[in-house]
Fold this sequence. Notes:
single chain; alpha+beta; Dna Ligase, domain 1; D-amino Acid Aminotransferase, Chain A, domain 1; 3 domains; eight-stranded antiparallel beta sheet; five-stranded parallel beta sheet; 15 helices; globular; binds ligand MV4
Amino acid sequence: MIAKLLIANRGEIALRIHRAAKELGMATVAVHSTADADAMHVRLADESVCIGPAASKDSYLNMPAILSAAAITGADAIHPGIGFLAENARFAEMVEDHGLIFVGPSAEHILLMGDKLTAKEAATKLGIPIVPGTPEPVEEDAVALAFAEEVGYPVLVKAAGGGGGKGMKVVMTAEEMPESLSIARREAQTHFGNPAVYIEKYLPSPRHIEVQILADKFGNAVHLGERDCSLQRRHQKLLEEAPSPILTPEQRAELGAQCVNAVKELGYHGVGTFEFLYQDGQFYFIEMNTRLQVEHPVTEMITGIDLVRQQLLVAAGEKLPFKQKDIKFTGHAMECRLNAENPISFAPRPGKISDYHAPGGFGVRVDSALYNGYRVHSHYDSLVAKLIVHGNDRATCVDRLKRALGEFVILGIETTLPLFQQLLEDPDFLASNFDVKWLEGFVAELQEKKAA
Ligand code: MV4
């Protein structure tokens, strides 16, 4: 078992992990930057250590400082949370080299999935369908042109070293190819320190559907269904839901079984997410995330399974306590990400919270590190609260979400809350009639209305 857990993160996710750890009888250690000395994750933890100044690279990304904090406090495990060091294979390795448990998969699996080309290669070998693309990094224009000729334009240039849309370029014609390649390579180098790029066939209007898996260190694995994360703006998810309104139970079972088979074959342990693009009845694997995800609560709401609790238990060397047949999907869940941003321009709006009241009631959950008087900093992510609701079906879930949004009070700063109130009235949203580009159009319309 883990007796003392160091949580190498901040904000709502640090609270989320702290809560699961406390329920398992673990002591917790918070680490924090000088800017976060009075943050909620520090207040709740049993102990805390300041690991550096406000800038993330000097604190939450400061590996020696975090390892020293673990040594000083006698922690026996480190949870990296989300972002920061969560998918850093070198950090995972360093944690284990110090004789501590890294709450996550092995460094080898993080490395394998961190490179999108080796991830796609692994998926193909394991029988998971991928988007047609070049299997190797493209070094010569001729290779890219030949591939595009074969599958037809438009094609997409992507960075091998990282996902999230950075270094991505749509190429409409052969003439555009040389410049698109060099721009993408430069961006890839800047963002990921790796200039390698590859080409994929471009899917014009896919949905983003991701499958949650959970595996122990003894070869047992289950899937916990999918989440539909198609509602994104500039590759930032705004609203996620489970189950996907457009999947049949048969599609869910088949896709889930493919992912479970893959993690068993890989010997992967921990939580993980297989990301797919879905178009015209077909799934195409694009990436795997080797960490907990921000939107994990919607899966928890429809399965009743505490993902962070299970993540801690498998890291501690426990066997999964359930089998696939024990996992039942009940009702519908949605999550709104409330950001400290102007709801029309999305400009950051840090500042001091002058009043705070979270909604409650049946089927309502709020994951947030806010409190009255707290100061939202500009140094970090603008996510300030996640509002998650569950209902017996999608329509009930939407009604409950509207009701809960109406109760939410966050004063002193601007948040994206009003955007969700508009979204929940939109006929296309209500009919689940959207793809990954739809939200950009919805936002553009709001901006035009505002300007008029
Ligand atoms: C694609 C695509 C269309 N065709 N790949 C964007 C981020 C990265 N994770 C994958 N992305 C996409 N890859 C092919 N071959 C469209 C996107 C995409 C997207 C994907 C998921 C969610 C939102 C998106 C918004 C724009 C583009």
